[in-house]
Amino acid sequence: MARTPEELHRSNKNPSAASGQQTRNIPARDDLSHQLDRAEVVSGRWLVKAILGVLAIAGVALYLTVCLLFYQGQWQFTFSPPKGSPPTAAAVAAKTGLPITDVRFDATEEGVERLDGWWIPAAESQAPNGAPALSHMVVLFCPNGHTDLAENVDAFKALHALGVDVFSFDYQGFSASQTGHPSQQKAYANGVAAMNYLTGMRHVPPDRVVVYGARLGAAVAAHIAQQSPNIAGLILEDPQPSLTEEVKREQHIHLLPMWLVFQDRFQIATMMPSLKMPKLILSTPAMRQYASGAASVYDEAHPPKQKAAIGNHSTYTQPEWRAAVGNFLNGLVS
């Protein structure tokens, strides 16, 4: 159809109308160039800072994770329950000749007895000269954190040979005692429960009880002495002022904030000034590298106090041990 002159005139005045609606959506080249000029360019310095920031956050998270894992598993630096099934009291008695009686004590509200212990009565016929007077004494033996009852037989034999009754126990998490991870709080409670068993179930007066603690058990023994200040005496074998200092010697954990993440500290040094009963501090060859710690505990101890160094290798068979412990016990009844 031919277009009139008026239509041609209008078309020339408004060319966009002839091109249709689509031309309105096509941006001009100048607009595209302007947008590209305004686009932000990421600098290499900013990228390096971002990567370093991510690595720093990851490092902090890893460090906090290690601290948390140590906090949850710290009991393994303090306690080491023996693996496997230990020999029974009857088997040990048959092998050693010790008159061992296996006992269960420290019952819960439900009547479940949590702890396992061995009672070894004195045999006066085996006592050395001058020792029969000790037959009325009871030595409560608190083991270290790495042995169970069966592994302390040498100590029981040596004490029994001195003519005293002996009672010892396994901490929670050890052998036949209640299962679960041991801890300082549980060990202290176990020690107090053992003392209560002697005074409550066996009706032993506190002034007839001598508490003996070996290594970590020395802190347990000191805690018992705090709770029962009327005991006859206290013997500490290789005590350390605080377990924290011993753990710090482990090179792979020295970067951790021990004051914050290590809770089982077994701080004997803070207890010693308040304990007024007679005390004997022993330093043995097995812990010779910690002799300075035992000397420090002795210095902090309230009089009366004695100390002795045991030579050679097998502690409980040495004449020095028998003389030191025997003389100390005899001094309590003289």
Brief rundown of the structure:
The chain is α/β, with parallel strands linked by helices and 334 residues long.
Structural write-up:
The chain has a domain at 82-243 and 263-333: Rossmann fold (3-Layer(aba) Sandwich), CATH 3.40.50. The chain is elongated. It is α/β, with parallel strands linked by helices and 334 residues long. It has an eight-stranded mixed β-sheet, with helices on both faces. It contains 13 helices and eight strands.
Helix-strand blueprint:
Layout lengths: L4 H9 L1 H5 L9 H10 L5 H30 L1 H4 L10 H8 L4 E7 L5 E8 L17 E5 L10 H9 L3 E5 L14 H18 L7 E6 L1 H12 L5 E5 L5 H6 L9 H4 L17 E5 L7 H10 L4 E5 L9 H15 L1
Parallel strand pairs: 3-4, 3-5, 5-6, 6-7, 7-8
Antiparallel strand pairs: 1-2, 2-4
Helix pairs in contact: 8-9
Specify the CATH architecture of the domain at 82-243 and 263-333: 3-Layer(aba) Sandwich
Largest sheet: 8 strands, mixed
Unreliable residue runs: 17-23
Amino-to-carboxy terminus distance: 142 Å
Oligomer: single chain
Give descriptors for this structure.
13 helices; elongated; 334 residues; alpha/beta; Rossmann fold
